[in-house]
Design the sequence.
């Protein structure tokens, strides 16, 4: 299954930034593709009835959508270029960036989950309820963080208003709240964030529907959060977020 246009927007903007702000489509396509590791060779060769490539065609339509939003601008023929508005969507402003340790937590979660997304389908079944996938993700993340040299505990989590507390010998001390959304409804995630104002960092794993990305981005903007996201596979996204102080 190919990612939707909405899922491609951020990776396309990131690819343009990686190229220095502009590039030719044939240079952009591979950079977008590498941000979706679950895409198969069959996906990449899937043809339209008209004979064109379905994947590159979808990236092209995403570019058109971003042009309408003003995030990709007018440029010479054969060149795609990001605008200042597009940069603001994906590049943190001063005071809104994540620390290297916070990004390492994101990278650890991504590497732990990206090759195992088939488990999401199993644990999203109704018989597991709302906690099946969340318990599994939390357990896997704790083990992975410990393997990376972090000290992880649940002691004191109620007082810290979070699921796990992550420390290391450099003085790191983060209360991390984990939320998973299996239905694609982002409002459940927002309730989880609003219900834990004391957490230092939020780690979100969510199934996507047509409103999830735009709904989360609007919330983060209105409530002064910075965030960073990674696609685990089409339909599933990993996000870290924190309140801007």
Sequence:
């Amino acid at each position: 299954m190919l990612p939707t246009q909405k899922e491609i927007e951020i990776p396309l903007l990131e690819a343009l930034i990686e190229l220095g702000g502009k590039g030719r489509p044939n240079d952009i396509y591979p950079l977008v593709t590498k941000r979706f590791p679950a895409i198969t060779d069959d996906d990449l060769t899937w043809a339209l009835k008209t004979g064109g490539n379905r994947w590159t065609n979808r990236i092209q339509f995403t570019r058109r959508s971003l042009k309408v939003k003003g995030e990709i601008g007018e440029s010479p023929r054969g060149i795609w270029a990001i605008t200042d508005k597009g940069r603001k969507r994906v590049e943190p402003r001063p005071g809104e960036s994540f620390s290297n340790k916070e990004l390492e937590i994101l990278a650890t979660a991504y590497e732990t989950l990206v090759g195992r997304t088939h488990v999401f389908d199993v644990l999203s079944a109704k018989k597991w309820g709302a906690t099946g996938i969340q318990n599994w993700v939390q357990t896997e993340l704790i083990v992975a963080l410990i393997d990376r040299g972090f000290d992880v505990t649940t002691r004191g989590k109620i007082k810290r208003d979070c699921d796990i507390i992550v420390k290391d010998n450099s003085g790191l001390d983060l209360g991390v709240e984990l939320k998973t959304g299996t239905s694609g409804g982002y409002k459940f995630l927002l309730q989880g964030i609003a219900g834990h104002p004391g957490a230092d960092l939020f780690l979100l794993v969510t199934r996507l529907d047509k409103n999830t990305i735009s709904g989360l981005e609007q919330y983060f903007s209105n409530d002064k959060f910075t965030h960073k996201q990674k696609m685990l596979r089409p339909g599933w996204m990993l996000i870290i977020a924190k309140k801007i102080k």
Notes: The chain has two domains: 5-90, 100-243. The first helix runs from residue 5 to 18. The beta strands are 22-23, 72-73, 80-82, 151-153, 164-167, 173-181, 201-207, 225-233, 236-243.
